[in-house]
Design a protein that fits this description.
mainly alpha, two-stranded antiparallel ribbon, single chain, 13 helices, about 280 residues, two-stranded antiparallel sheet
Length: about 280
């Protein structure tokens, strides 16, 4: 695992992906560059919210806010895909074939993962089903999704009074990064604000779920364990590799990517602060 305070941009995912001739050059080029996260990553992992999610009622309340981060994760992912592959017609090859392959692998997992019964679903849909099984309220997020399908802009639908204030602020921050149209910032936010940090956050919740009724909480536990498996073993290293490739030897890009990564982590901390206050009041 990476150190808490600064994360070295890891240049390779596997021998299968990197060409031996290019690997040594890339490692040498990347030696002096880092993604600087300050203490943001450590503070997020040590946040008190994980110890507060200690009853089914609190877990449901947690899910009702966390679902918004699950949803905007998918939007952030699709933004990354737009920048690294071609999603328009007529099709033309994007410049980095390796990054194209890697991001499409992640999209396959996140948008149409295989479930234990052999069916397929996005991780967002799996989360919604988990909420329904647990008795959490899915109406606010479902209404927003329905309005977006109808063509309403995100900025308007987030003003729905049933959207938690802290969730609205978090999603708006994510979309401000998406709308920046700055590829290395977007990929840095996705990598260090999501894929790199999620396993360490979710492990603490999985431990609590181990003692809960599997008929009610089994799907949610599967969702969390699936993310830990994917992000730790594959998605996190893949995304770090893409960030390193995009920033190359440009110290300005590394500084901008670091800034955006820290902002993404701080946005999650702000979200967790608000949710923790709600949980403590239950």
């Amino acid at each position: 695992m990476d150190t808490m305070n600064s994360v070295i941009a890891k240049p390779s995912v596997s021998e299968k992906i990197d060409k031996p001739a290019d690997k040594a050059t890339f490692q040498q080029d990347m030696t002096d560059y880092r993604i600087e996260l300050g203490d943001s990553r450590e503070r997020l992992i040590r946040h008190p919210i994980y110890s507060l999610v200690d009853t089914p009622e609190r877990m449901k309340l947690f899910m009702e806010t966390h679902i918004w981060a699950v949803w905007d994760f998918q939007s952030l992912l699709k933004s990354v895909q737009q920048h690294l592959s071609c999603v328009t017609v007529p099709w033309v090859p994007s410049p980095d074939a390796e990054a194209r392959r890697l991001i499409n692998e992640i999209v396959l997992d996140e948008e149409s993962d295989e479930l234990p019964n052999g069916s397929f679903a996005s991780h967002f849909e799996l989360y919604l089903r988990s909420m329904e099984s647990a008795g959490a309220d899915t109406n606010p997020i479902s209404r927003v999704i329905d309005r977006i399908r109808a063509g309403d802009p995100v900025s308007e639908v987030l003003l729905e009074p049933t959207v938690p204030v802290e969730a609205r602020e978090f999603v708006n921050r994510s979309f401000s990064i998406i709308h920046s149209d700055n590829p290395h910032r977007i990929v840095a936010a996705f990598t260090y604000g999501r894929e790199d940090i999620i396993p360490d956050m979710f492990r603490q919740v999985v431990v609590k779920l181990a003692s809960y009724n599997p008929e009610i909480w089994g799907q949610f536990r599967f969702y969390l364990e699936r993310h830990i498996e994917h992000d730790d073993d594959r998605h996190g290293p893949v995304c770090r590799r893409i960030v390193a490739t995009m920033c190359g030897n440009d110290p300005v890009r590394w500084a901008e990517a670091s800034e955006t990564a820290r902002h993404a982590l701080e946005a999650r901390i702000t979200l967790w602060d608000a949710v923790a206050a709600r949980l403590a009041a239950v």
